[in-house]
């Protein structure tokens, strides 16, 4: 269940290595066969790592800072997701949506590397990947609220933490997904960024991402871009905040723009919960060369 190439291979159970819910079968083959272009740009992140925030940044950098369109056209239509249309799970015609996009295409995915299209996993095509990472404690808390509000999870936070540790949550174990992508860093064009660094110095990350994409952000553009990307403004932006879906949620918060802070888990996690996650980090990341989250 926690397998990663870094630590000795997968435990092969079922077609999706126990990573995905069974409905994924509806799109597995189509995604595997999906044609890739070398100029595709992917944003990759385990769910609740700040993936959508990163997408919004990348979209503006690649679209001449078109704030008007960014406020009019929903992010899921500007920056489609490989495995879902953002509303229903795994029953969409992914190929049609993506094949009709203008190039270079901007595509988001939460998938484990083993589920990426064959043209990527076989190294036949070399798109760019911007990979966003976030500390496991805050991801776990954010996922709890996501499961509670959108997926009908009824248990306590403590119960959710146990499921999270066992990888029995939407899109499988955090550690496997993170390591599966990390393992590819020498074979593909990848930029790893951290949610925590975006919070600390967004301008620095914007410059880093732009340079990775061969773009520049004029300094006079920076204040407006940072303002557009701030938590408070994205929380109010209907093209970002999924407010059209809020009526379907049975929760008390919008899980897409909930709190937006670093260390939120400290107020609600017991020392035991934090200890379990840290122990799992130690177990899973030791010996993998993965260090990006370790200095927090
Ligand atoms: P919280 O639940 O901790 O608030 P993803 O897009 O990968 O699903 O990640 C969602 C998380 O990113 C949520 O975390 C959300 O609030 C946070 N987020 C979204 N936009 C943000 C922004 N502009 N600044 C900080 N955090 C943001």
From TrEMBL:
UniProt superkingdom: Eukaryota
Any Pfam family: Sulfotransfer_1
Residue stretches in coiled coil: none
Gene3D superfamilies linked to this entry: P-loop containing nucleotide triphosphate hydrolases
This protein's record includes keyword DNA-binding: no
Sorted UniProt keywords: Transferase
Sulfotransferase domain span: 38-288
UniProt record similarity statement: Belongs to the sulfotransferase 1 family.
PANTHER family, alphabetized: SULFOTRANSFERASE SULT
Name assigned to this protein: Sulfotransferase domain-containing protein
Organism of derivation: Photinus pyralis
């Amino acid at each position: 269940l926690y397998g990663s190439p870094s630590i000795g291979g997968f435990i092969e159970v079922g077609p999706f290595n126990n990573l995905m819910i069974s409905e994924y079968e509806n799109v597995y083959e189509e995604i595997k066969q999906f044609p890739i272009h070398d100029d595709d740009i992917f944003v990759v992140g385990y769910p609740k790592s700040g993936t959508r925030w990163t997408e919004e940044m990348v979209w503006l950098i690649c679209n001449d800072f078109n704030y008007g369109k960014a406020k009019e056209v929903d992010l899921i239509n500007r920056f489609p997701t490989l495995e879902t249309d953002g509303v229903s799970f795994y029953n969409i015609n992914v190929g049609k949506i993506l094949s009709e996009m203008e190039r270079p295409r901007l595509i988001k995915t939460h998938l484990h590397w083993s589920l990426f299209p064959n043209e990527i996993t076989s190294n036949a095509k070399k798109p760019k990947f911007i990979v966003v990472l976030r500390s496991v404690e805050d991801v776990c808390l954010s996922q709890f609220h996501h499961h509670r509000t959108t997926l009908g999870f009824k248990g306590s936070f403590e119960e959710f933490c146990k499921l999270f540790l066992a990888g029995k949550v939407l899109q499988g174990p955090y550690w496997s997904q993170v390591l599966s992508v990390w393992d590819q860093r020498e074979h593909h064009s990848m930029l790893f960024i951290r949610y925590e660094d975006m919070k600390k110095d967004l301008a620095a990350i914007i410059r880093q991402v732009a340079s990775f994409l061969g773009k520049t952000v004029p300094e006079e553009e920076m204040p407006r871009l940072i303002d557009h990307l701030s938590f408070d403004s994205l929380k109010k932006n209907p093209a970002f905040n999924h407010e059209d879906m809020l009526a379907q949620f049975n929760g008390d918060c919008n899980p897409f723009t909930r709190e937006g802070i670093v260390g939120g888990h400290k107020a609600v996690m017991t020392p035991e919960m934090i200890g379990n996650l840290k122990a799992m980090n130690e177990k899973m990341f030791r010996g993998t060369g993965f260090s990006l989250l370790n200095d927090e």
